[in-house]
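Field reference: "sequence" (input) and "structure" (output). Example, LD-carboxypeptidase:
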Amino acid sequence: MSVLFPPALQRGQRVAIVSPARKISAAELAPAIGTLERWGLEVVLGDSIAGEHHQFAGDDDLRRRDFQRQLNDPSIRAILCARGGYGTARIVDGLDFSRFAQQPKWIAGFSDITVLNGHLLRLGYASIHGVMPVLFHQEGGERALESLRRALFGEPALPIGAPWHELNRPGTATGELVGGNLSLLHTVTGTASQASFEGRILFLEDLDEYLYHIDRMMLHLHRSGQLAGLAGLVVGHFSDMRDNAVPFGTTAVEIIDSYARHYNFPVGYGFPIGHEPTNEAVVVGQVMRLDVTDAGSTLEPERA
């Protein structure tokens, strides 16, 4: 099944900001709203913005209804997820994408939004893994924000580069891009939000996890056969990793390497994708080319 791409945004169109996971206030979004308006867009805030139910942006029903309203509204041409946290997996099974299928629109976010990236790809639609409004104005994040704008407006993407890394496995791979946050990829395994990795380039990132958790999740991907058919592997940020009093003994990238070495696909480490200001936007479902050489790695859309 070929992947369908929503139409590029145009100036004057309406976009919605919703929070399918952690709570957030309208005040926290004010700078991002200003940026989107400078891009020529009209911003609509969903009911989940300023919603509150413990750590969530409203209870599950509110967050689901808010997201469904934006999916169904033909005047909304993109849905930007305000922030991550936890909660998207709790509502995704209650979403109806039938009206979305009649008029697809861009859905953008990362981290917990990996659930939606995978769900949409399984349905046959591309989405954007990129910086979210609450993080629009991080110091050092200017290129990441520009990459999101380019993706939304259908402008040519800039190649994403990574320096040489001692664990790189040189080679070239071409395939549709799949992946996101390792913890969420693990969470959706065996569900309707699990997209196939077969023949695709997988990218991984994560934040604030114990090293043994990283090993457990990579072991699961390995034992379940999900790594066997990869065209290539892109490793992004593994930020603020934690360890036990008795050290696990290896770093996150060394853990990933210990499983990737069972296969022959190219692997590039150190890509600017994940929980750092340099989080560059990528389109999940887009055919990409991964080149890993002795000089470093690049990831860019495959030329027609």
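The chain has two domains: 14-153, 160-301.
Residues 232 and 265 are 5 Å apart (CA to CA).
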